[in-house]
Amino acid sequence: MKEIDFNFEQISVDDTMSCNDRAVDLHAYLGFEEVLKNSMEIIIEDKVVRIPSLPSFVLLKLISWSDRPESRDNDLYDILKIIESYYEYESNAIMERHFDLFDKEPFDQLMIAARVLGRGTKQYIQKSEELRDRVLLLLADNLNEPSDSEITRERARIKDAEISYTHALLLEFQTGLTEEA
Asked: Which of 3, 16, 87, 144 is deepest in the core (most CB within 10 A)?
């Protein structure tokens, strides 16, 4: 397997970058620039690697899935896994900064996690009108009617869950993206 090494900061205005003299163009997904600016740097074997936050990773997964839903099933699975793990992963921050979400009955960690992920993702979509419009339209198209939503049906299928619960979960994410601070 041949390695490809490139720097996202060098992506051109038209969202493509040529690799040396080879006839290869890489296309950058909408959102990379916003995510890259706020990524965390870690060092692995003397190399600096940029790691996106989980909210920004969810954003990139949504964009990549919407570009090719027929071949990107793993994106939806990854998004759902992040929602399922997010409360436990960020429990201290959630309790400190999102205490307004604890007044709902019954208490539901997944619903809280989805809303907080939406709030976290909001900071990225606010940086680009094109990105914001794309994500909000994607969610609007997929959350009108639960049974018509590919995202909702896929999560219900993967988790053997009720479509209505999955729909409510994704509505919480959408609410986090759109609510006022």
From this structure: 87
